[in-house]
Records
---
Amino acid sequence: PKGKGPQGKRITLKVAKNSVRVAFNGRRRLDLSKMGIAVFPKCILELADVEELDLSRNMLKKIPNIIEKFQNLMWLDLHSNQLDELPAAIGTLHNLTYLNLCNNKLKVLPEELTLLRGLRILNLGLNCLETIPTTLGTLRELTELGLFDNALTIIPKSVKKLPKLEKLNVKRNPLPEFAEEEEPIDTVKRIESLYLVEKKDLCGSCLQTCQGERDELHKLEDMTPGPSNNPSFPSLVTPNSSARDNQEEWRMK
C-alpha cells in the first residue's frame, strides 16, 4: 500500500496535526501511538510546542537528537518500541515529569538522563539493563520508578533512598535479595495412603508389614512431649502461637 515500506508508515504534517488532542489536564498531546512508525518523523518538529508526545507501540529503533526541540514536553511516552539507546539530548528536556521507556531494548542509560531533575515517574521496565547509574539517585522528585524485567543484580543505595519514592518495582531481576530460599526439609513422617481392612483379611506377609508400621507409629507417640505448662488458647492454635511449643503433637493431630 502507498506510504508503507521498509521504513514503516510515513507520517505527514497533516496527519500529525490531526493527531493533536487536548488531554484532561488541558495540555496538548500529539498522539502518534500504534502508527507503524519506524523512523522518527521530522515533520512533527512543526508541532514541537506540544506539552505531551506519545510515540508508543511503534517500531522506532532510534530517537534523534532533534528531540531537544520539544522544550515544552512534560510527558513523553516511548514504550513498546525497539530502542536500544537514548540520545544525549534527552537530558535537555528539563520540563519532563513523566517518561515511559518500558518494553524496549535498552542496555545502558545515558548519564544525561540524570539531568531531568523534575521527573516524577520513570518507567524502565522490560529492557535489557544490567546496571543503572548511581547518579539516578539525583532525581530526587521521583515518586515512581519501574525497573522490573531487566538483568539487574544490584540497585544502588542512592536510588533506594530517594526521598519522595513511593513505588519501586524491581520484580523479575536476578537480585540476590530476591533469590528463592530452599524449602525446609520436613522431618515428620507422613502417611501418603490409608487403607482400612480387617485383620483376618490380611495375608501373613501383609499382616507382618502392618504390625511393623504400627510399632513405628507407637515409637513416634512415645517421643511426643507431654502437655505444656504454658497457657492454651484453643481458638488461636496456629504454627505461630501455642502450637509452636507442642509442634510434634500439633503435627500429629
---
Amino acid sequence: KKISDVLQKSAPKPGVPADLQNLLTQHFGENRSVIEIEELKLSDSCFLPANDLSHSFSSYLKEICPKWAKLRRNHKEKKSLVMLVLCSSALRSLELIKSMTAFKGDCRVLKLFAKHIKIKEQMNMLEKGVFHIGIGTPGRVKALVEQDALCLNSTKYMILDWNWRDQKLRRMMDIPEVLYKHLYMLHSVYSLLLLLVLRSWSVKFSFC
C-alpha cells in the first residue's frame, strides 16, 4: 500500500515523544548496541505538550513559550538560535515563517534551507548577526552544525513540524529523503544534548 492510501484512511493524531523515540530506535537499532540505543533516549520531561491540532502555529508557540519576549531580549550570541524549527521543505518553511508573525514580535528569523540560498550566505549571516529563530530543513541544519557554523548551546526550543501533511498526505517523517537527513541530524543533536543535559542545560522538544 502507498503511504498516502494508508494516511488517507487514518485520522490525524498529534505527535508524542514516543513517536520520535521509537523512530530513532527502529532506524538505528540494527547497527547499535543496546547501550548505544539507550543513550539516544531522552526523558519525557524534555518534551513539551504537542499541538492538539486546534492551534495555529503562533498560538501554539505562545502557549509553550510564554516567556518568549524575555528570551529574545536576553539573546545576544552570534552563530546561535533560541528556537529551531524543523520541517520538510523550503516552501513549508516559508509558510511557517509567515504564520508565526503574531508570535515572533521584533525578533530576527533565519531561513535554514538550501533552495535559492547558499550555505556560505547562511554561515556569514550567523557569524555576523544575532538571530533568534531558525526555520528550515534537517539537511541544511545538519550541514551547518557539522561545519560549526551553527552552535546549539543557546537553543531552548526545538520544534518539529510533525503533524503537517503535504498534498500526498505525507508527514515529514513519511518522506524517505527527509527522514534520512532528519534522523541523522537528530542523532548528532541528541549526542550533543546528552552531554549538555548532564551540565544542567536543557532544551525542549515539541511537535507542532
---
Amino acid sequence: FLQVLCSFSSQVATVTDYGAFIKIPGCRKQGLVHRTHMSSCRVDKPSEIVDVGDKVWVKLIGKEMKDDKLKLSLSMKVVNQGTGKDLDPNNVSLDQDERKKRTFRDYTSQKITLEAVLNTVCKKCGCKGHFAKECFMQPGGTKYSLIPEEEEEEVAAAAAGCERDEKSSVADHPSKKRKK
C-alpha cells in the first residue's frame, strides 16, 4: 500500500508549528504534511488550516528510513480536498518544488577574485587600464571622457553663477551678447 503514490482520506492526529501529522488508515503509522504541502498558498500557521480530528485528503509523496523508523511525507495541496481527486498524477508540481529547492546555492563562503587589468598602457592610444586589442580608439581619433554626474554639474553651475555676479557689469551691457 505504501509503494503506490495515491490519494486517500484520513484524520488529523496532531498539529504542530511545522505541519500536521495524519493517521495512515489500516496501520498505526502517521505521516507528516509539512506546512509547505498544505496549500498552494503560503501557510505560516498550520493550526489555521486544520484541527485535530479533521478529515483531509492526502497523497503519499515520499518515505525515508531514519534511525530505523519509516518517516512518511504527505501532501494536501496536490489533492482536491472536496473530491479526493489527485491534482498531480504525474508528480510534475512535486518535481518542480524539488528543483526550486535545489537551485538555491550559498556562495558566501567562496572568495570572489576580480581579474581586472591594472597598470597597463595601451600601445594605440597611450591610455592606462586596457590593452591595444581591447582599445576602441583609432589612431588620431576622438578621445572620449566620462560625462560628469548631475551633482557635479550643479556645483559647477553654482560656481559659474557666483563668477557672473562678480562680473555683473559685463553681463548687464546689452551690446555684448553671450553665446551658449
---
Amino acid sequence: QFLRQLGIHPDWQFVDVYGMEPELLSMVPRPVCAVLLLFPITEKYETFRTEEEERIKAKGQDVKSSVYFMKQTINNACGTIGLIHAIANNRDKMNFETNSSLKKFLEDSLSMTPEERAKYLETYEAIRVTHESSAHEGQTEAPSIDEKVDLHFIALVNVGGHLYELDGRKPFPINHGETSDDSFLEDAIEVCKKFMERDPEELRFNAIALSAA
C-alpha cells in the first residue's frame, strides 16, 4: 500500500520473512532485491556499533560510489529511510508512475551528500506525511529520554555484487562482502543472524523482503 502511495507500480512487494531456516526462506518469492531488518537498539548493539565504526575508520572499506545512502535526522523515520534505501538502490528495477513523489525525490537527491538528502527529506512533505504508515514501529507515544530500548530499521541491498547495510544512524554504508542476485536473500539473512547473535536474549527481530510480485 505504501509503495502505491509513493507512485510505484505493484510489480514488487514487501513480504514477511517468517524464519531464517532454508525451508522458510524458500517460501519468499524471488527475486529479492532488498531486505529490511527491524531490530532493538540495546546497549550491546550500541557498543558493537561504536567498535565497528572505529574499526572501519582505521582499516577502511570499499564502498561503490553508486550506493545511494542517506543520514537519518527525523526521529522514528527509520522505516521510511529503510524504504528509501531499498528503492533507491534498486531504482533501475522499479516502475514509477510519472507523478511519483518518491521518483522525484530520488532524482532531485541523486547528486546530494547523505546529509543533504536527510535535510531534503525533512522538507519533503509528500513522503514525510506518510512515513509512519510504513514504519509500524508500534510507538504510540515518543519514548522517554531514559528509554534504553528502541526499535530501528536498516536496509540490506546488493549494489554491484556487494551486500551493503544502510543505516541512517551510521556515518557510512557497511560493506558485508560479495553477493549475487541468486544468493542475496540467504546472504542478507546471514547478516541478520549476526544481529540476533549479538543480543541472544532479545526476541524483537523482524525481516521483510522486497520481492517480485
